[in-house]
Design a protein that fits this description.
With 470 residues, the protein is of the alpha/beta class. It folds into 3 domains: 140 residues, no CATH class; 106 residues, Rossmann fold; 180 residues, no CATH class. The protein is 51% helix and 10% strand. α7 links the parallel β5 and β6. α1 runs antiparallel to α4, α2 crosses α3 and α10 packs antiparallel against α11. About 1% of the residues have low confidence. It is found in: Membrane. It comes from Massilia norwichensis.
């Protein structure tokens, strides 16, 4: 895994992205060269003064296609899927979305326009290049490309859970588990044949060298008595990567596990950036995104308001008290998606999947996130951010604080219209779901950055396109 702005990015995805950026840039130049060779002219473009300007056009084309492929989920890899039918089902819509984005770009900046003949060639060459790149990539990954050899210190329940996570076939990583080193007074939860019982004179570092290990994952629940801290330090000084279970879980799932989390890991670990620079960038990002989306979706919001009103003649908007940053309450505004008597008993209820209280218009709005758009007003007021943990009602917060460890940590940042938990976990209607979503929220609170905010917005677009709402 690579770490960019505190967020873990798979090396495999990073390499694939880098290769496809080169393919798309190359397609722009090859398409232009082929087109002008056909016309018997030297390389050059109408309305483009020089190759530097053409490079800007190629960058715009590449950015549009990469953004579209990301929004279609083409960088959320499934090695079992490979190049089968779903790949083509995503590639063609990605290029169509990219074409629409480029049309808007060329309208705003006509000097960047390729010309129809060049653009058609560029798209054809790019599609072929992306297909070949993916074919080579998946074939190479079958040969254990970028595989990492790891060793687990521990043989108990935590070691078993971490090893199962490492062996997931659809993981962005490819791991080769060398084995497990048992520690005293620990329950055996892994196969006995996978234990590495060396000679008494063997140290942890010598075993790692013997088995060509690149990383040691410390997966011991109880570190009292017999914990080889000096040997781990020796491994660290020898250049081996030493990772604790909490960090491994965070890296592989983009969550922070709470049931076995040590408070010291949160206190002394990195992240939790609340500096002035981060706060200023976050607020600027919120304002810019809110203005753009308000302008783009204003006609859609008018249609939504009309549809809500016509369906049952009830109120268009729904305001509800929610808990925000530092536990302060505020009123969130949404398009009403439930019947007016949704809580006629007066007691707050969890929203459920296929909830009978949801209207037909409301169901569509929830799937497409249209009901969330009025919350842009909350962003302007400063009660919410565009990206952050979902704000919850005080009634449920009081309950969840009692049963979910560290639940209040999510209130250290502003809540958001969309968030890491919403795009990763989706629908939730119980305390167990709240725990899973909290683990994603904690990851966001700890590792929040402008880079992660952009990724969440791209994933939100994917959720809207595939109507995989809560």
């Amino acid at each position: 895994m690579l770490r960019i702005s505190n967020h873990y990015v798979s090396k495999i995805v990073f390499v694939l992205l880098f290769v496809e950026v080169l393919v798309l840039l190359g397609a722009a130049y090859v398409g232009a060269a082929v087109r002008f060779m056909e016309l018997g002219q030297p390389l050059g473009l109408p309305n483009v003064e020089n190759l530097d300007h053409f490079f800007t056009s190629a960058i715009a084309f590449t950015a549009a296609i990469i953004f579209s492929m990301s929004a279609m989920g083409m960088y959320q890899l499934d090695f079992n899927e490979g190049l089968r039918h779903p790949f083509f089902m995503k590639l063609m819509p990605s290029f169509l979305m990219g074409f629409l984005i480029l049309t808007l770009v060329f309208y705003v900046a006509p000097d960047l326009y390729f010309g129809r003949g060049i653009l058609a060639l560029v798209f054809a060459i790019a599609a072929a290049g992306i297909f070949i790149a993916r074919m080579v990539f998946f074939k190479t990954s079958e040969l254990r490309f970028l595989e990492t050899r790891i060793l687990f210190l521990g043989s108990g329940p935590l070691a078993k859970e971490c090893s199962d996570l490492a062996l997931q076939s659809t993981s962005y990583h490819r791991y080769n588990i060398t084995g497990f080193i048992p520690t005293p007074n620990e329950e055996l939860c892994v196969p006995s044949e996978s234990l590495l019982n060396g000679r008494e004179s063997d140290t942890l570092a010598s075993l790692a060298r013997q088995y060509n290990v690149e990383e040691i994952v410390v997966s011991v629940q109880n570190r009292r008595g017999g914990f080889p801290i000096k040997e781990l330090l020796e491994c660290k000084l020898a250049g081996l990567k030493v990772t604790d279970a909490a960090t491994f879980f965070e890296r592989e799932t983009c969550q922070i596990r709470v049931d076995s989390l040590q408070p010291s890991w949160l206190v002394f670990g990195g992240g939790f950036d609340q500096s002035f620079v981060r706060t200023f960038m976050k607020r600027s990002f919120d304002i810019v995104c809110s203005v753009i989306i308000m302008l783009l979706t204003f006609p859609l919001m008018l249609l939504a308001a009309l549809a809500v009103k016509l369906e049952d003649r009830g109120p268009v908007f729904y305001s509800q008290e929610r808990v925000g940053k530092d536990g302060k309450t505020f009123f969130v505004h949404k398009f009403r998606s439930m019947r007016t008597d949704a809580e006629k008993g007066g007691k707050p209820q969890w929203a459920q999947q296929n909830d009978p209280r949801i209207t037909r218009v409301g169901n569509f709005m929830r799937k497409t996130r249209i009901d969330e758009l009025p919350q842009i007003l909350n962003v302007f007021k400063g009660d919410m951010s565009f990206v952050g943990p979902r704000p919850e009602r005080q009634y449920f917060v009081d309950q969840l604080i009692e049963v979910v460890p560290y639940y209040n940590v999510r209130h250290s940042v502003k809540p958001g219209i969309t968030g890491w938990a919403q795009v990763r976990y989706g629908y939730g209607s119980s305390a167990e779901d709240a725990l899973q979503k909290l683990q994603y929220d904690l990851y966001y609170v700890k590792n929040n950055s402008l880079f992660l905010d952009v990724l969440i917005l791209i994933d939100t677009l994917k959720v809207v396109l595939f109507r995989s709402g809560r």
